[in-house]
Amino acid sequence: MPAVVNRDECVSCGTCVEECPEEAITMDDEEIAVVNADKCTDCGTCVEACPSEAITLE
Length: 58
Known about the structure:
Blueprint: E1 3-5, H1 15-19, E2 25-27, E3 33-35, H2 45-49, E4 55-57
Antiparallel strand pairs: 1-4, 2-3
Protein name: Ferredoxin
Pfam families: Fer4_21
Function: Ferredoxins are iron-sulfur proteins that transfer electrons in a wide variety of metabolic reactions.
């Protein structure tokens, strides 16, 4: 399963976008992180990088 972003916890910092080695995360119109499931490899880099703990692997 790809990484999942809790929209209520995301602080729009963009750290996950910068850290994702697969370029699987972008920011939507509300500046909330969105994971592209087709690109996500479940590596966990974004989970570790997220300062608000808004991203989980399911």
